Please model this.
Amino acid sequence: MKSFLYFIGVLIVIFVIFQFIPSYEKANPTFDKTKEIKISKDLKSIFKKSCYDCHSFETNWPWYADVAPMKWVVRRDVVEGRKALNFSIWDSYPNAKKEELKKKIFRSINLAMPLPQYLWLHPDAKLSSDDKKKVQNWASNGKGYIKMEVR
Ligand code: HEC
Model:
């Protein structure tokens, strides 16, 4: 019993020390709304539901974004996600970048996006096959398919 309490004590100390380890910044910077992506309401609501938490400046930060060790994962996903694709500043991307990102969006939703660790806690963010069709139709500029390079 004594060693068990000792063990719990050590865990608590480690947990407290964790809280002082610096992490990525948690912020929703203000942005120029005119640069936000311009798409149909329908598509926007799909992206808002499933992608905006990591791919926009309008992140809904969960409480565990303030608690280590979870905050390390959550904040990193948001920082890296915004770097890769940010719908809040979409219209400031050059056209070539938009087209490249559309291809990546088309591909990413088949498997990788939203990230699995996000879906555990946000099961509603999972895209339905109807959502996927709408997103892929937009991403392929109405063609419904995208020519993929063979690697
Ligand atoms: C939990 C956070 C999170 C959510 C939710 C999320 N993503 Fe991501 N996404 C990331 C991260 C992190 C990266 C960067 C991964 C990397 O560069 O390795 C990324 C990268 C991407 C990329 C770029 C891939 C590449 O090859 O450069 C695309 C496209 C993308 N996400 C699309 C989406 C779409 C579409 C959704 C919604 C259906 C979505 N993501 C939801 C975190 C997320």
